[in-house]
Design brief:
One of its GO terms (molecular function) is DNA binding. The protein is mostly helical and about 325 residues long. About 60% of the residues lie in helices and about 5% in strands.
C-alpha cells in the first residue's frame, strides 16, 4: 500500500483493528479502551452493540462424519495413558500421544488408517443416500433462509449504520410503519415425525425429538456392532466346521478304500481255503459241500470237532489239517 491511496490504507487499518477487537475482546478491555458509542434520540450515549457471530447450522439428521486414523489412535490409547499418568493434564496427554503417533512406522499406523478408510467409504454411501431424503432438502432450504436473515441483520447492524441525528422535534412513528403494526412473522419450517406430527424446527420439542432420535441411533449402532461381532464369530465357526467336514470326508473315503482292500483280501483267503480244504474228507456230519459262503462256518465246526473228546479217533484228519494250514502263505495272498 503506497501513500497515493491514504483512504484505502485507512480502511484496511480499520478492518484489521475491528477483526482484532472481535478475536481478542479481553485484551482490549483490559487496556482501558472505551467501547465505541452512539448517540440516541434523547442525547444520551450508549455502547455500540457488537457484531453478531455467524452461527453454523448443524444438520442433526445427517450421517456422522468418520474419524481419521489419528483420532482413532487417540481414542484407543488416551484412557490407558491417563491411567498410567493420572497427574498429567489433558492437553499434555494429547501432546504425548501425538508425538507417539508421529514416531510410529507406516505399518503400525496402517490398521488405524484402514479402519478410517472403511468408515469413510461407509460415510460417503450414507451421505449419498441421505442427500436424496426430504430431511436434507428441508435443511438446505432452512440454511438458505438463515443465510439471508444473517445478511439482512448485518446490513441492519448499528456498527454499519451512521449515527442517528438528534432532532429538536418529538419522536414520531417511523415512516416505514406509519403507525401500522408489522405483520406477524411467517411460521418457520416444520419436521414431520414418524406419527405424522408436525414439529417446528429449533423448538424445544424439535430438540427433544432430535435427542431421542440420536439416542435411538446410538442404540441401533450398538446393536449393529454386537450383531456384526456375532456374525464374525459364526463365520469363523462355519469355516472351522467346513474344514472338519472336509477332513472327515477324506477319512471316510480312505476308510472305504481300506474296507474294499480288506474285503478283497478276505475273498481271496476264502477261495484258497475252499480249494485246499476241499480235498480233505470231513466227518459225516460235516460232509456238506464246501464253498465261499459256508467256509467260515464249516472250518469253525471242524476246529470244534477236532478239539473235542473224539479227536483221538481222527488223528489222521488232524494231521492233514495241520499240513494244509502250514502251507498257507498269507502275506503273499495279500500282495
Amino acid at each position: 500500500m503506497t501513500a497515493d491511496h491514504p483512504a484505502e490504507k485507512h480502511e484496511e487499518m480499520d478492518v484489521i483493528d475491528r477483526a482484532d477487537l472481535d478475536d481478542h475482546p479481553s485484551d482490549h478491555s483490559s487496556a482501558g479502551s472505551p467501547a465505541p458509542s452512539i448517540s440516541t434520540e434523547d442525547g444520551n450515549k450508549k455502547a455500540r452493540p457488537k457484531a453478531k457471530r455467524k452461527r453454523l447450522l448443524k444438520d442433526v439428521n445427517a450421517p456422522k462424519a468418520p474419524l481419521t486414523g489419528y483420532v482413532r489412535f487417540l481414542n484407543e490409547k488416551r484412557e490407558k495413558f491417563r491411567e498410567d499418568h493420572p497427574d498429567m493434564p489433558f492437553h499434555e496427554i494429547t501432546k504425548a500421544l501425538g508425538q507417539k503417533w508421529s514416531s510410529m512406522t507406516q505399518e503400525e499406523k496402517q490398521d488405524y488408517l484402514d479402519q478410517a478408510e472403511k468408515e469413510k467409504e461407509r460415510y460417503v454411501k450414507e451421505l449419498e443416500g441421505y442427500q436424496q431424503t426430504p430431511a436434507y432438502k428441508e435443511f438446505q432450504e432452512l440454511k438458505k433462509r438463515k443465510e439471508a436473515e444473517y445478511q439482512h441483520s448485518e446490513e441492519q447492524d448499528p456498527r454499519h449504520l451512521p449515527p442517528k441525528i438528534k432532532h429538536d422535534y418529538p419522536y414520531t412513528n417511523s415512516p416505514k410503519t406509519n403507525g401500522v403494526p408489522l405483520p406477524a412473522p411467517a411460521p418457520g419450517p416444520k419436521l414431520t415425525a414418524e406419527n405424522g406430527t408436525q414439529i417446528p424446527i429449533f423448538s424445544e420439542q424439535f430438540l427433544e425429538y432430535s435427542r431421542k432420535r440420536e439416542s435411538d441411533l446410538r442404540q441401533l449402532r450398538k446393536g449393529n456392532a454386537v450383531f456384526e461381532e456375532q456374525n464374525a464369530i459364526l463365520n469363523k465357526q462355519i469355516d472351522h466346521m467346513k474344514n472338519v467336514m472336509d477332513r472327515v470326508k477324506k477319512e471316510i473315503i480312505q476308510q472305504e478304500n481300506e474296507n474294499i482292500s480288506v474285503q478283497s483280501y478276505l475273498d481271496q483267503i476264502r477261495k484258497i481255503l475252499v480249494s485246499r480244504f476241499g480235498k480233505i474228507n470231513f466227518p459225516e456230519h460235516l460232509s456238506a459241500t464246501l464253498n465261499s459262503e459256508n467256509v467260515d462256518n464249516k472250518l469253525a465246526q471242524l476246529a470244534e470237532f477236532l478239539n473235542g473228546s473224539r479227536s483221538t479217533e481222527y488223528g489222521d484228519l488232524k494231521k492233514r489239517v495241520r499240513d494244509v494250514i502250514s502251507k498257507l502263505d498269507f502275506p503273499n495272498i495279500k500282495e
